[in-house]
Amino acid sequence: MKCASFKEPLMNSSRPYLVRALYEWIVDNDCTPHMLVNAEFPAVQVPQGFASDGQIVLNISPSAVRSLHMDNDAVSFEGRFGGVAHSLYVPVGAILGIYARENGQGMVFELEPPVMDDDEPEDDDVQPDDNGPPEGGGQPPRPTGRPSLKVVK
């Protein structure tokens, strides 16, 4: 079903919704939610001394953090590292995965490029690909090859 304007609607990222749902599911099952974060993503505020290879794993269980706030833009909370309190801020695009420490159940996400602010100029030098199907041709082309899923333990 198409919108009245006959344009495909732009949808919000599903990542924040999945992160919140998986967090709730992990906690409801009496497990410890851990969040894998790209520590080098713009606007991430995590203790860099605890990051390894540009990534950090954060225990976000209710007993480990204070003032946990999850919305469509970011996850923020207060946590302790080496006995020192830190305020952490993780944009949703920096979240690489969320899983239960006890059994590894959860989800890993693909890398997401940083979102440009409306204030930043867009690159107008991008030219359309002449090899693609003509615009307005209806359905987008189907991907070729076999679908693949990765089992995460």
UniProtKB/TrEMBL annotation:
Region (Disordered): 110-153
Organism placement in taxonomy: Bacteria, Pseudomonadati, Pseudomonadota, Gammaproteobacteria, Pseudomonadales
Biased composition (Acidic residues): 115-128
Top-level lineage group: Bacteria
Keywords for the protein's UniProt record, in alphabetical order: Hydrolase, Protease
UniProt-listed InterPro entries: SspB (IPR007481), SspB-like_sf (IPR036760)
Name this protein carries in UniProt: ClpXP protease specificity-enhancing factor
A GO BP entry: positive regulation of protein catabolic process
Gene Ontology CC entries for this record: cytosol; ribosome
